[in-house]
């Protein structure tokens, strides 16, 4: 299969790309930092790295024309900003929405015609526990991730007649560079030490008290493209260590 992963130069995106590449799939890692994407792809068998701004329709359409058909699209690109709403720069609020909600819509729109033509496609959005619950100081991120679930469900209904599925994987905290930065930001906003942020904010709601592994997310993505998941669509797969059970 041909697999495209956005935000693929590091963190969750790279982990998913690595999993698919080692399974023998053709992987394209797309990232705003093209050089970093190429360097990451060079470490994977048969992978390719490309520069891509997921908020730029022209860049997306150009990549879609270049790649042609695509079997699996993983909408993973994301950023975070932690601040009280009254201190949240408007341009930063809009940027988070553009990258994590508008971006997946633009990416899917560009690659859907080829998926329809071949009557096969697997669209996987990387959401978050914050697509289901909220935390203070993350209004833009929480709004974007909540919106992503509605987008996925609507699109799944539009594509029901084809062998194309749309699902969202929602992990709780994963130890990535994005989360490492959040720890420092949350410590500042809440007046806590970084260790206290981890124990009282990040892991406290999780019954298992453990960060989610990137390998768990990659394995879930691999399941969603397998024949066993051909009728799983419009679903939210939650990897939260028991967070939402309470």
Any chance you could write out the topology, listing elements then pairs?
Blueprint: E1 2-6, H1 11-22, E2 26-31, H2 34-41, E3 48-51, H3 57-67, E4 72-75, H4 90-118, E5 121-126, H5 139-158, E6 164-171, H6 177-190, H7 194-202, H8 214-224, E7 236-239
Parallel strand pairs: 1-2, 1-4, 2-3, 4-5, 5-6, 6-7
Gyration radius from CA atoms, angstroms: 17 Å
* Oligomeric composition of the shown chains: single chain
- The structural class is alpha/beta
What is the helical fraction, as a range of percent?
40-55%
- Identify the CATH class: Alpha Beta
Distance between the termini: 39 Å
How many domains would you count in the coordinates? 1
Strand order of the largest sheet: 3-2-1-4-5-6-7
Named at the architecture level, the CATH assignment is 3-Layer(aba) Sandwich
Number of helices: 8
What proportion strand?
A: 15-25%
Question: For this structure, what is the CATH homologous superfamily?
Answer: NAD(P)-binding Rossmann-like Domain
Shape: globular
Organism: Gallaecimonas xiamenensis 3-C-1
InterPro entries: 3-OHbutyrate_DH, NAD(P)-bd_dom_sf, Sc_DH/Rdtase_CS, SDR, SDR_fam
GO biological process, one term: monocarboxylic acid metabolic process
Protein name: Putative 3-hydroxybutyrate dehydrogenase
């Amino acid at each position: 299969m041909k697999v495209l992963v956005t935000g693929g130069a590091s963190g969750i995106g790279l982990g998913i790309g690595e999993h698919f590449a080692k399974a023998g799939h053709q992987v394209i890692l797309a990232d705003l930092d093209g050089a970093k994407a190429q360097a990451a792809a060079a470490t994977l068998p048969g992978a390719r790295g490309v520069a891509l701004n997921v908020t730029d329709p022209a860049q997306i359409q150009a990549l879609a024309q270049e790649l042609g058909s695509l079997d699996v699209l993983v909408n993973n690109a994301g950023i975070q900003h932690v601040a009280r709403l009254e201190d949240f720069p408007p341009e930063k609020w809009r940027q988070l929405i553009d990258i994590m909600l508008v971006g997946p819509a633009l990416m899917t729109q560009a690659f859907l015609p080829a998926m329809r033509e071949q009557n096969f496609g697997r669209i996987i959005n990387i959401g978050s526990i914050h697509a289901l619950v909220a935390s203070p100081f993350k209004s833009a991120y929480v709004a974007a991730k909540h919106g992503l679930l509605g987008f996925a469900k609507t699109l799944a209904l539009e594509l029901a007649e084809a062998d194309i599925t749309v699902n969202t994987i929602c992990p709780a905290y994963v130890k990535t560079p994005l989360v490492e930065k959040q720890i420092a930001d949350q410590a500042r906003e809440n007046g806590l030490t970084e260790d206290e942020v981890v124990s009282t904010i990040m892991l406290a709601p999780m019954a298992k008290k453990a960060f989610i592994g990137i390998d768990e997310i990659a394995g879930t993505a691999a399941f969603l493209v397998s024949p066993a998941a051909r009728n799983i669509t419009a679903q939210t797969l939650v990897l939260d260590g028991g967070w939402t059970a309470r």
